[in-house]
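General statements about sequence and structure are easier to judge against a single worked case. For one protein, we set the task of working out the structure tokens from the amino acid sequence alone. The sequence in question and its structure tokens are set out directly beneath this paragraph.
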Amino acid sequence: MSFTSRAKRYVPALAIPVVAALVITGCGSSDSGTSGGSDAQLTIADYGGKLSKTMNTTFLEPYSAESGVKFTQDPNMDNNKIALQVQSGNIQWDMAEVDTWLATQQCGKQFEEIDADALDTSKFAEGRVTNKCGLPVLEWGAVLAYDKTKFGDNPPTSWADFFDTQKYPGKRCAPTTSQFNMEAASLASGVKPENLYPLDVMTAINKYQTIKQDTTFLTSSTQQVDTMLSGGAVMCMVYSPRAFDAISQGAKWDVVWPTVLKQWDSLVILKGSPNAGPAKKFLSWLSNNPEAQTKFEELAPYASTAAKSGEPKVSDLQAQYLVSNHRNDGVALDNEWYAQNKDAAESQWRAALVG
């Protein structure tokens, strides 16, 4: 089962009714409590699948049991639906799991500021708090993965190798989004990691043009797993949880961890939510309970963003795929840059490469 389809984050705007998928009922006391109150009912939008169920098990159910607050999960998270709800004043989601660049871009516009205590930077890994509206959770990354049966004792070791079809012939695969691809292309062009931002979008696009005919752009993260299992490519840019999925299912692939391009999600409160108060209390509780993210790590290969959390009880293979074990590898995406430039860069990227 796929944990989530991250391609859904980039689907064009459509007005789609909210569909509640998972409903959990709190079993706390009937009084209002200190965490949110038993009368509170929060609706949270996420990306569905096992990721949604794991969030339910590790974040929502424990808080519901403690506070009495009830949650409804909607697996149809879409950036454009948030914009429509806020613009119309018809708020159907109290909270949402979003890309951190969007939390940064829309802080104070589409999203409420959350309590400063919840965003105490000392609680989080360095650099993970980038705005006043998003609680950092669930770190992951895009990595260079390759078929171990294809290159003997000379496997690819860098993004430059991903773009070198003479030295490493064969089909590539990559997500359709500009995010991650532009970083990989820039690094392959010789840009130093410390000089990666501001991104030179055209340099990145021109670099990708050199392997466009050799690359299959995949519209869902499920396709990443399928491609690795079927041998549909010799190397791919893959989301780290999807690489874990494929390898744990038998794909004879490996990952070049120094190439990891790190990102993390954020939980936000929609501007105008009538339940903003209880939602803020939930986020404050989550920020003060890093063990909730540790439990998440045990059930799904997404890393904790907490500065200090417990040691997850996971297999050696899953431990390799927790980005928190690769703090010194790769590059963390610059959410400030994406907040300012995401829309324009994505348009240029799609016009040039993936339509």
User: Anything to note?
Assistant: DSSP finds twelve helices and ten strands in the chain. The two ends are 29 Å apart (CA to CA). Strands lie at 22-24, 41-45, 70-74, 95-99, 135-147, 172-175, 215-218, 235-239, 253-269, 331-332. The longest helix spans residues 335-354.
